[in-house]
Specification:
Structural class of chain A: mainly alpha
Helix content of chain B: 25-40%
Number of helices of chain A: 10
Number of helices of chain B: 9
Structural class of chain B: alpha/beta
Oligomer: heterodimer
Largest sheet of chain B: 6 strands, mixed
Order of helices and strands of chain A: HHHHHHHHHH
Distance between the termini of chain B: 30 Å
Largest interface: A-B, 20 and 23 residues
Largest sheet of chain A: none
Helix content of chain A: over 70%
Chain lengths: 264, 263
């Protein structure tokens, strides 16, 4: 498809400046560490980090997969819960008054504090507490953004649907839900990379010895700093993958917001 | 034709008061107005005279405080539930995520028409407003005038006997506006729909209507009803003496020189 080619061309055009900047930054970093003779435990060279990444690719990928799976399951659960709550709250004012302070309280839960408690609630071999942490973290941005989107309705659309004698549910389906998509995806973009961070944080407090968190802890404990940095790099990559997936989902779900050729 | 069609709109003693107590505002008082089937009537007046409120009362989007509202011989609420009217606003109000064709299909789909049938009807409607080849476009790809034509096609979708329009050309430039007025005349002749048309442009009201209903604010009321001389509404009519004479008449009525024996 021609438009598809143009579109991906635009993406690459937008991609090369940050790529160039990133490569330049890594080069400067490398030169800086070499010239100033900085110790690896203070700041390892990027080349040493990539070396470690290559050598430990298998274990790092396994750890990334474990964390990624927890983040994905938690994200899906939080997404479903947040969407459902927003839909209900937008339809029933009582429920909104009930849910909004509760979700604000849920957003204020320090996940760092909750993790050890959840860990003791479940078996130490269970991934469930980690997934729950991610879910709690994800719920709020999804709920609050989607609800705002569902509440916004163009007065013209509102009058139009009333002139059609459309039921409130039909109005939600035809006007409010599609209109809320930009808001929902704003929430999803915040939640997506946040889900990875929450998944890693949840791994620092006991429980299973798998995932990126324990891997970083044990590498640092063994003074293998370049390896710890290599794992951090993998964590960043995982967060980026989640974020990019959210951006792609947004473009797919809202084709009308894609740049289009002007009408001649 | 068998039985004569009931009037498109029959208003009797319609009042509308917003708020209560000391802060209450009388938006409309003592409105009596009948619009015959197939008749084109404009509501004209300064801001705050309640013309848009009156249109919304006819559409049953808001309820009057007093009085009776009949649309097609039925209570306004029933007429709305039966989709007896189509409505268009100053903003086209198209759903940006739907194609032009899907926007026109919306009222048909909500009324349970099958996919093939509503597709056929929507294409006919788009042809009627001169946008046959734009069905697959997104609203954002169209100009303001084209979007407004889509909104008119959508308002006509259920073949309503009554078309309600709230300053539909208010946001368009003068050239586009005059073209749209001629289009609207043609469409109304073809569909034989009655029209209640809210505007604050005097030439627009005179060009389009058979009667111009002049309203004044505080409290909103009808001060005059001016008959526009019959005649083909073409570009020649815009230059005709009768056109200018009626414009003067409406302008003077708006300034408050109410004549004797006005209805």
């Amino acid at each position: 498809m021609r438009t598809g080619a143009v579109w991906s061309g635009r993406i690459f055009a937008g991609l090369w400046p940050p790529l160039l900047f990133g490569v330049g930054f890594l080069l400067l970093w490398e030169v800086f560490v070499l010239l100033r003779d900085i110790e690896p435990f203070v700041l390892p060279k990027p080349s040493a980090i990539f070396e470690q990444l290559r050598e430990n690719l298998g274990p790092i990928l396994t750890a990334t997969w474990d964390t990624g799976r927890n983040a994905l399951v938690g994200l899906a659960l939080g997404l479903a819960a947040g969407l459902l709550a927003a839909l209900l709250a937008s339809r029933l004012r009582v429920l909104e008054e009930l849910l909004t302070p509760l979700t604000a309280a849920a957003a204020a839960i320090p996940i760092v504090a909750l993790t050890p408690i959840l860990n003791t609630m479940f078996a130490s071999t269970s991934s469930t507490p980690r997934r729950l942490i991610v879910m709690i973290y994800v719920f709020f941005p999804i709920f609050i953004n989607t609800l705002k989107g569902l509440r916004q309705i163009d007065p013209v659309h509102s009058e139009l649907m009333r002139s059609y004698a459309a039921s409130p549910w039909t109005t939600t389906r035809v006007v409010r839900l599609p209109g809320a998509l930009p808001y929902f995806f704003t929430g999803l973009k915040i939640a997506s990379s946040g889900a990875v961070i929450a998944a890693i944080v949840s791994e620092y407090f006991g429980g299973l010895q798998q995932g990126l968190g324990p891997a970083i802890t044990s590498a640092a404990a063994a003074s293998a700093y370049p390896r710890a940095w290599a794992i951090v790099t993998a964590a960043i990559a995982l967060g980026l993958i989640f974020y990019i997936a959210a951006v792609l989902a947004e473009r797919l779900a809202m084709p009308w917001q894609r740049p289009q050729g002007e009408l001649t | 034709m068998s039985a004569p069609r009931p009037p498109a709109v029959a208003l009797e003693g319609v009042d509308k008061r917003f708020g209560a107590g000391d802060t209450a505002v009388d938006a409309l008082t003592g409105i009596d107005l009948t619009v015959a089937a197939g008749e084109f009537v404009s509501l004209i007046g300064p801001s705050g005279c309640g013309k848009s409120t009156l249109l919304r009362i006819i559409a049953n989007l808001i309820d009057p405080s007093a009085g009776s509202v009949l649309v097609n011989g039925k209570p306004a609420r029933q007429a709305r539930l039966d989709q007896d009217y189509g409505i268009a606003f100053q903003q086209a109000g198209l759903l940006e995520w739907r194609t032009v064709q899907a926007n026109v299909e919306l009222p048909l789909a909500l009324h349970g028409l099958g996919r093939a049938e509503r597709g056929r009807q929507a294409r006919e409607l788009l042809e009627l407003v001169g946008l046959a080849e734009f069905g697959g476009h997104r609203p954002s790809q169209l100009s303001g005038g084209m979007q407004q034509r889509v909104a008119i096609a959508r308002a006509l979708a259920r073949r309503p006997a009554l078309l309600l329009m709230d300053e539909p050309f208010g946001a368009l430039d003068e050239m586009t506006r005059e073209r749209m007025q001629s289009e609207l005349i043609r469409i109304c002749t073809e569909t034989r729909a009655a029209v209640v048309f809210v505007t604050h442009s005097i030439p627009e009201a005179v060009f389009l209507s058979q009667r111009a209903v002049v309203m004044s604010p505080r409290p909103g009321r009808i001060t005059d009803v001016i008959e526009v001389p019959p005649g083909t509404r073409d570009e020649d009519f815009r230059e005709a003496d009768a056109f200018y004479a009626t414009i003067t008449e409406v302008r003077e009525a708006l300034r408050g020189r109410t004549r004797e024996g006005s209805p």
